[in-house]
Amino acid sequence: MEYIRVTKENIDSEHICCAISNNKDIQVASKKAWLSERFDDGLVFLKSTERGKCFIEYVPAENAWNPIDAAGYMYIDCLWVSGSFKGHGYSSDLLSACIEDSKAKGKIGLCILSSAKKKPFLADPKFLKYKGFKVCDEADNGIQLWYLPFSDDAAPPKFRDCAKHPHIDETGYVLYYTNQCPFNAKYVPIVEQTAKESNIPFKAIHIETIDEAQNAPTPVTTYALFYNGEYLTNEQMNDKKFLRLAAK
After folding, report:
1. What's 163-247's CATH class?
2. Averaged pLDDT score across all residues of the chain
3. CATH 3.40.630.30 occupies which residues in the chain?
4. Residue 189's Cα: distance from chain center in Å?
5. Number of alpha carbons in the 13 Å side-chain half-sphere of residue 20
6. Where do the CATH 3.40.30.10 domains begin and end in the chain?
7. How far apart are CA 240 and CA 71, in angstroms?
8. Which of 52, 80, 134, 232 has its CA at 20 to 30 Å from residue 117's CA atom?
9. C-alpha distances in Å from residue 76, one per residue of 98, 115, 202, 216
10. Are 162 and 217 in contact (CB under 8 A)?
11. Taking the model in full, what pTM does it have?
12. Domain 3-160 falls in which CATH fold?
């Protein structure tokens, strides 16, 4: 498998693996705009040269859009290998490339979000454990921070207090989200409209700056849905999923 790094210079011509529609699609445009603004923060997007979902996205933890304290670490936004790419060792290839790059940049380790049991859109804990990652912190909602230190004396990362105890004071459904996930550009407005038509209290809070992200009341900032102050899920909703959830 050959890989290519997406940069400011080639992003217009390269497909984005997590949103493989054409460049005029709102999902692609949203993700590419978000990536373009993050490259100066040290973000790396490495993907398969073949069209499909096979990529890793990572950034120095100080610039991660998550409420973590992980100075000196590299934070993995997403490691995604799916479809026909699964089962060929490509996840290991991408992780190895991230490790090599991070060591070359003087980082003391990697960190990533996961959970005790596999959750949608989070790293597989079985894979992380196999690769030597360990849990270093856990939020009240079960979201865990895992890390892979490059030396025994590397201090483990941790969640900030706002993420450690996810809770908000607002009632109804409240969604925190960023443009890091391309699906939000399409489906957040759909859920907003669905909630309005069904008279369901719903509020979407678009996280648009790194400061907002690092002080969000949730460890997952790409998509975090609350109901009456309590965290519900990080799984993206379409209109049908949201109505099923609301019916419960």
Report:
1. alpha beta
2. 95
3. 3-160
4. 20
5. 12
6. 163-247
7. 41
8. 52
9. 9, 15, 30, 18
10. yes
11. 0.95
12. Aminopeptidase (3.40.630)
